[in-house]
């Protein structure tokens, strides 16, 4: 009769089990690996948010052109900051309300308004601009009512002789190229990328890029 004593079985179990020290070593290694991966994952997430924002602005550029097509090539008139209208007695509409139907069409090819609603929300908008203003993107109100392919400053006056009012003046306008004139851009620096501003912008010609450093 072969009787096994409890002692050998206990030793076999001990050999198969982790010791507390080994367990702590494994946890420490995992913590180091997570620490190494976190910056990479953070950069990937930030890059994804930026790509989504760029796509939103591209769709809004299309929506704005669709609006202009229906309105004799004129751009909409909207407030820069709807919660603080320039003239509280006669506030202009929000850009998100003006372009809602057009944004839906640019996204899905339909006229369903809700389909384009999220186009106005930057995924990195932690300032609550979308909730407060209806859009994460600021409308360039200096374009209100202008033609979509042509924008110019108001008439200005220039002294022919600097400092001499009697020397005469001349008036002029500055015509700006559509590829350098912003239509909509991030309200805030939602996408920090030093030394640039961290804002994306869609220009009048429809292309989207980071806002150039001032």
The chain-level mean pLDDT equals: 79
Share of helix among residues? Answer: 25-40%
Instruction: Strand order, main sheet: write it out.
Output: 1-6-7-8
Using only CA atoms, what is the Rg? 30 Å
The largest sheet, given as strand count, sense and whether it forms a barrel, is: 4 strands, antiparallel
Number of domains: 1
Query: How many DSSP H or I helices?
Result: 4
**Ends apart, CA distance between termini:** 92 Å
Large-scale geometry: elongated
Strand segment tally:
8
Query: Strand percentage, roughly?
Result: 5-15%
Question: Can you write the helix and strand succession as a string?
Answer: HHHHEEEEEEEE
Low-confidence stretches: 110-116
> Helix/strand-derived class?
alpha+beta
Describe the structure.
The protein has 214 residues and is an alpha+beta fold. It has one domain (28-149, 178-210). Helices cover 38% and strands 13% of the residues. It is built from four helices and eight strands. The strands form three sheets. The chain has a four-stranded antiparallel β-sheet with strand order 1-6-7-8, covered by helices on one side. A two-stranded antiparallel ribbon has the order 2-5. The protein is elongated, with a radius of gyration of 30 Å.
